[in-house]
């Protein structure tokens, strides 16, 4: 279906179905109790054990609940959710959680400690690369790897890492982890209904079957098709273009004002904007700041919340170990290509970094909003040192670096680099065009070929080290600097295949920072990492990008004061959960 033609019909048809389900309410009351959201993203999975994308995460966080959550709009304070309190002992290696009474799953089953035990053991056992369970495994087993890849992982280790003492949940860590509690607030650690899961064909939770469940693809699991959490909303239906949830009558907390939530997949930005302006959608994926300010701001019944905190980090990765011959051209420094280790020379990287015009990017893409960054860490996170200068756009410095690179061969012979960006991303395309223009202006023998690709294709190639250059970004799984620093800079990090570098000094500092709870020492270590990473020019750094969100002005509960960027994973996130919203 082409939504550019029939978005209104789809919205009205979906809303009619929703209203029909709301027996006893007239159309106006039904519309006021229904949230309609439009976005371009599909929804790969509803299984929290493997949700690791924004499309899935925005739903999982509303169907399921975690032991702890963020307090208000704080990134550093946590408060109980399915737990009521916790105690830490043994120098930070043991955590005991008292669990909430009187909670029911959507199936009607009561929430017990056995459900939490099952959830975390299942996450440790399956632990696929397409989930956030690698950082849970780091904390509880001492390894980020799939249990199948590490022969030291045994059932005893998994069972002893998380278990019930009566109705108290106990975690035992091999060493202290200052980020452990924040990791438990990640939506992918939402507690699943173990009885329901086993009944519909999920892992049975026993030692006898655990090895067969290791690394299992959960994307289209039975639990993804038939979820059961404790959240304020329960699953109603899902097809290729529409997801629907309804308020859970048995919810233990305050009852949500919105009875129905409808998410619609609408590919075209113009169609989403038109539906929004007509009132057929309450929230949409609205495009860039320029799109919002030109098409939506100041229009009737439209409200805007601006200057929201940016807790993502983006950079252009320069791969020092390219694993694809078809990305290398000639494979030589002869002007017609590059060798696989082209970016292993720091002067090549310095030349690329100095050629990127951050001020122009901020002006063209971000409407003048945002600041240059000195590190791939949000500047509102602990560990970011604002006193460290950001890399400068300086074509003279870029020229000097290129003249030194590879003993002068780069400048003499030239190069052809093939870079990719996500098809349809104006920001990524503009960044690559700025870089291409400036680098090619330095030497007629320099060529940067840029090519759009589907995001899934880029991910598949980049995660295997096949891309030469690619825009790489990260939104936090948990509010701790380690989630960014280890991801981007560690030789064991999630993005290591994309960049291919190993820096033993940075690895040493990262490992120390993740094993101490001394905040001052951690900040010192992160400054040292930032300084070295800047000197070595490991990434081309994108600036901060304050958020802007349009919404229909009858939608209540969405404001800068209530916005917590760790909540609502979608690209147009409200920074709160559906249960906190209402309509006037």
From TrEMBL:
<feature type="domain" description="Solute-binding protein family 5">
    <location>
        <begin position="77"/>
        <end position="494"/>
    </location>
</feature>
<comment type="similarity">
    <text>Belongs to the bacterial solute-binding protein 5 family.</text>
</comment>
<dbReference type="InterPro" id="IPR030678">
    <property type="entry name" value="Peptide/Ni-bd"/>
</dbReference>
<protein>
    <submittedName>
        <fullName>Periplasmic dipeptide transport protein</fullName>
    </submittedName>
</protein>
<dbReference type="InterPro" id="IPR000914">
    <property type="entry name" value="SBP_5_dom"/>
</dbReference>
<dbReference type="Pfam" id="PF00496">
    <property type="entry name" value="SBP_bac_5"/>
</dbReference>
<dbReference type="InterPro" id="IPR023765">
    <property type="entry name" value="SBP_5_CS"/>
</dbReference>
<keyword id="KW-0732">Signal</keyword>
<feature type="signal peptide">
    <location>
        <begin position="1"/>
        <end position="27"/>
    </location>
</feature>
<dbReference type="InterPro" id="IPR039424">
    <property type="entry name" value="SBP_5"/>
</dbReference>
